[in-house]
Specification:
Helix content is 33%, strand content 23%. The chain is of the alpha+beta class.
């Protein structure tokens, strides 16, 4: 199912973990609508702006998959009240982060690890009902992930 010009539901629900653990990572109709809104409002504009493909390393996660990978129970990857994706484009992750931060409406934007010059990936979520424009940086403290204001 096509969600936008360049994004399909298949790529938004793809998960190697789900495949290897035989988890049916399938969203319901409401969740598909949240995922579509993320694609329309964030992913497609990023794709159009940079004119290159975006790697989605993590999109939708059903509760069983989210538990299997240790995701937060409130993760927007589960598309319960919005939707999230972890995206990357090689050495352009900082450019993606800054474009989203400066040009798009989003709920949460996270600079995920990496260096001060480039994150390893970018987490972004969209919630049509209420976008907080929350900007964070993920860091490791004593082996645990912590989030601080960006």
């Amino acid at each position: 199912m096509k969600l936008t010009k360049n994004f399909t539901l298949k790529e938004m629900i793809h998960s190697n973990t789900a495949k290897s653990m035989r988890i049916a990572n399938l969203p319901n109709e409401k969740q598909v609508n949240y995922i579509r809104e993320l694609c329309i409002n964030i992913l497609q504009p990023v794709r159009d702006h940079f004119e290159t493909a975006i790697n989605i390393s993590s999109g939708f996660r059903c509760p069983r998959l989210n538990l299997a990978i240790g995701g937060a129970t409130t993760s927007q990857h589960c598309a319960l009240n919005g939707a999230a994706a972890d995206i990357q484009m090689e050495e352009m992750n900082a450019d993606i982060f800054n474009y989203i931060k400066n040009e798009l409406v989003f709920d949460q934007l996270i600079w995920e690890f990496g260096t001060d010059e480039n994150p390893d990936w970018v987490h972004v979520s969209f919630n049509k009902a209420q976008n907080r424009k929350q900007i964070l940086k993920a860091i490791k403290v004593n082996g645990k992930t912590k989030y601080k204001p960006f």
